[in-house]
Amino acid sequence: MTLRPARGGWARLAVPLLGLVTLATWLLLGRPPDDTLLWNAVFDIGHIVLFAVATALVRQMLRTVWPDGAEWIAVAWTCAIVSGLAVLSEVVQVMDPTRHPSAGDVVRDLLGAGFYLTGRALLVQPATRVAAVGLVAAMTLSFAAALSPLAGVRAVYRERDRAFPTLLAFGHSAWERALVLTSAIEEAPCDQSAATVPCEGFVDVTFYPDVFAGYEIREVAPNWSAYDHIALCIILPHGNGPLELVVRARDRTQVRNEADGSEVVVELEPGLNAVSIPLSTFTTASTRPVSLTQMRRLAVFMTGLTNSSRLKLGPFKLVRGSGYRCPQEVDEFGHKSLVRPRVRVHAEPRPAPERP
Question: b/e per residue, 105-124, with b = 16+ CB within 10 A?
Fold first, then answer.
């Protein structure tokens, strides 16, 4: 094998080489324009298109550098180079703590390469009708399977929007599994046999000492403009308080700058705490109210604990007005113990949990 490009071949090599370098840089360093389920799904599907283009560029480079080489050898080298690039693009992500390698991305990369090589083979060397139909059918089914994540994302969003204005119900539904992160907590069903207060809709949650122990909803239903309070009910057992619960709400702009904004600290007391937080409390660093038509994330957590703390959490809801009442007006001992906890603003945001 000798690398002997045709006349002017080295000049023609510059274009596919530049394109390949650009694609490789994007694969190694590129990110979706927005950190959402939808954009991540689109970004994943984009691997197919990009690797089809990358395969075409590699194939063109090989034909330019080695114009007289056998076709099957050129295809073999193309597959080897593209496969190496697909694996390398995921291995590099291991060294970046903000990114996560995925075997699925490698499969989509190779699928894109297969689409190009198969399509080119059908055009350059026409196969029998049966073989051609079989290849086209296989390519169509593979591409449909690759697009299936988009259907899953749509289902998650629809289920989340049907639950609105409930932001979190601890039902472990598909949308909660997809959009809710937890850190340093342990959930258990509310033990009715051990409590004299009806606890339907509540969940027993143990918070463990950590910089962030709690929940973060990565993508809430975005339009909160028809509501003015976040409400939730919390039963704090006697002997376990007082405790501070931090609530953070972020709009789309603030998500891009984690330090832009304030947090609300709820001072929980033993008993049944009826928490009602005005949405006007949440502001940006410039004291601008958050945009209630472009809300993105909600976090509810504890920080700085020295010992584990257990309490009962009710659903997180948006309500109109401040008159939201908890379903239970008694504490776990059966005593009237409705607490309206004090709410104050904390100007310095705490660390957010890492995305798994």
Answer: bbbbbbbbbbbbbbeebeee
Cis peptide before 353 (omega within 30 of 0): no
Residue 221 and residue 294: Cα distance in Å, rounded?
9
Closest by CA to 50, choosing from 110, 117, 136, is: 110
- Counting DSSP H helices and E strands in the chain, the numbers are 7, 14
Residue 345 parent element (H or E): strand 342-346
Residue 237 backbone phi and psi in degrees, to 5: -60, 150
Closest Cα partner for 201 from 316, 340, 301, 298?
316
Q: Report the pLDDT value the prediction gives residue 269, as an integer from 0 to 100.
A: 84
Return the C-alpha torsion angle 192, 193, 194, 198, nearest 10: 30
Q: What is the pLDDT of residue 159?
A: 92
Name, in order, each residue with C-beta under 8 angstroms of 220's C-beta and a sequence gap of 6 or more: 160, 167, 295, 296, 297, 298
74-78, 133-137, 276-280 — which is least confidently predicted?
A: 133-137
> How far does CA 322 lie from the centroid of its chain?
32
Do strands 229-236 and 309-313 pair parallel, antiparallel, or not at all (unpaired)?
Answer: antiparallel
Q: Which two tokens stand for residue 16?
A: 């596919």
3-state secondary structure 298-326: EEEEECCCCCCEEEEECCEEEECCCCCCC
DSSP H or E segment with residue 21: helix 9-29
Query: In the chain, what are the helix, strand and coil shares in percent, each to the nearest 5?
Result: 40, 25, 35
Half-sphere exposure of 79 (CA within 13 A, CB side): 11
User: Using CA atoms, how far apart are residues 90 and 28, in angstroms rounded to an integer?
Assistant: 8
User: Does residue 3 register a pLDDT over 50?
Assistant: no
CA–CA separation, 119 vs 60, rounded Å?
A: 15
Question: Could you tell me whether strands 271-278 and 338-339 are parallel, antiparallel, or unpaired per DSSP bridges?
Answer: parallel
- Find the length of the chain: 356
In 3D, which of 111, 117, 142 has the Cα closest to residue 47? Answer: 111
Give the closest residue to 215 by CA, choosing from 315, 140, 334: 315
